[in-house]
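for the writeup, i need someone to sanity check this before i put it in the appendix. the sequnce is what the collaborator sent (i think, or maybe the updated version? ugh). structure was predicted straight from it, no edits. if anything looks off just tell me and ill rerun, i have time this weekend
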Amino acid sequence: AIDGYNVCLFSYGQTGAGKTHSMQGSGTGPQRGIIPRAIEQIAKAKIDLEAKGWEFQIHISYIEIYCEKIQDLLRKLGSNDEQAPHKIITNDFGQNIVTNTQMVHVDPSDSDKINEIMAIAAESRTTAKTGMNAVSSRSHSIFTLHISAMNERVGVTLHGQLNLVDLAGSERVERSGVTGQGLVEAKNINKSLSSLADVFDAISKKQKFVPFRNSQLTYLLEKALSGSGKTLMMLNLSPTDESVVESLSSLRFGSKVNSCELGRAQRAYGHSDD
């Protein structure tokens, strides 16, 4: 991402398998999650590259996709708590972004600021109790580092994205026991995960048409899932015997993802006078 690529890390698995904990973690010690650890790595790389003449602008956005609607998890950092309409657009650097969201300028070495952002997002995320999880995430959350790096010596500007995605948990309705709005949420979650599976299936079969626009999730992450991106998916599995069906389903999905070849990624270049 810091070299000008669109990068995505997914956390996938059934509800209650530890996806949110893997991404966010807890505390400041060994239980730190992938998001704070990734930011630490960005901070270290930034210091090394600044010594070679690179200058950086780094912003954070944090959204959730709930029942196919985009919600800004950092809206409380704005001037008011009202949400303006959000839509996905492609910016001048060929990256997909969401309009009308808070873009928070950060120094990746400022851990206090990062912790504040994470806490605000956690408070805003949509959760509910189900038969499988006392605090089940009912949305996909996407934490994005937007990185611009300029080097006047060589006259190059690079634009990268690091998308850290905590997917809503796949679930069998008969086991989770959800009804009413919970059932609506479950149907939307499973539908969007199916859309993600369709995208990976089309990529693995090298089909000319890949159905990125069948869901907000795949549309937003299209650039990381295509020729200009690099993607990694982590499977979260529950160790319980009761979850064997879900675990097998997750492993089958992981096998499908593992068969995908995105090809050689391309950097998002700009000019030093951007």
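Residues 55 and 186 are 44 Å apart (CA to CA). The longest helix spans residues 181-204.
thx in advance!!
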